[in-house]
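the two lines:
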Amino acid sequence: MNKVTNINHATVKERPVTTLDQKPARAEGRKDPWSQLLVKVGKEQDRQAYHSLFEHFAPQLKYYAMANGMASHAEELVQEVFVSIWRRACLYDWQKAAASTWIFTIARNQRIDMLRKMRRTSAEMPVETEDLWQIPGEDDNQPVTSLHRLMSERRVRESLSQLPEDQITVIAKVYMEQKSHQMVADELNIPLGTVKSRVRLALSKLKVILQDQNV
Amino acid sequence: MTRHHPDSLSLMEYSAGNLSEPHALCIRLHLDKCTHCRSRVDTLDSLGAVMMEQQPKVSVSETMFDDILAKIDSTPAPEQPAKVVPKISLLQKLLGEDINNLPWKRQLGDVSVLDITEKFPGQKEQVVLQKLGAGGKAPAHTHRGTETTIVLQGAFADQKGVFNQWDFVVLTDQDEHKPVAVGCEDCITLSVLSAPVKLTGTFTRMLNPFIR
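prediction for all of em together
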């Protein structure tokens, strides 16, 4: 009898958390504090909100820049990304991407851009970085529904927490250190096939692998 | 061999920003028309964000936020965001004119080619447009290294299947094929031929002046 009461108690205690987890993705996106701050920056040029985003994302972005070999230009990259966030925030749509995803793609493009400029090839190339690598939500033709996008953000975080360390290590090297699968294999001293199969296992967990074709 | 859609590993390298521009172009052209792959890339972009979030943080200089505000205040924002600039297609921007009016060079029989490698200065891959006249046949051939192809117009078929506009195909030296243009349009493809040596990532590193 006592035991039953305890269980009930625990259930009651946990209920709010469970409910939150099962809320539709749309409501979840509305609750993501960073996405809401970014909306405020876009709609109201809210500098307080902008500062909060800076406090949260700038240290991540600096590590990102340093990890991929831009140590001496790391602060420059962070600055450029934030100026870009300010200018583009009016285009941001929380229904199309979470703030963290949107900011990641801006940082990625900024890095590509800076490297192109250093190579002095950007002027000669007819297409710009953003023609090739898009920022989510900045294209009217985007057919994917908001629901799907927000689901994917949550799913990624959940799935990632279940992946073994060796798979995460490989993914981190690809994303953070800009290493090709071959370079990761060389560095970890494992066969290329092993690297690829670790990535494939991780991506199938994340449902990026096409079910019917296994690609 | 990859057929119809890019494989997950390539999409991941795309999302991470590690692909060369010609390869990114092939993927981007496909994504524009393929909702399915688009949502795969959305997931991968989220993966990038979550990876970044889970890495160590490095504090930035104390004056940086003020520097950013100063920069924002000193340069007035553009009147209209880039979004409303009238859009010309990515292909048109790249080629400078309609794909059918290009100075094609006839090769064998029904095949014409145009090398556009020079549009991508500083890249090691060869980038070529190929046109197979409507109903035309290309001679059987294999590929040197890896050839990544996207169908820009019309369709072609080989013994493995039919490839329609915006389909994505990767062929290696293991794949011999004998494509035929199907339908009533000329079939035009864009192909990126990998350099003989593996240097996808290494080359970028070599050119990367930040690395000492």
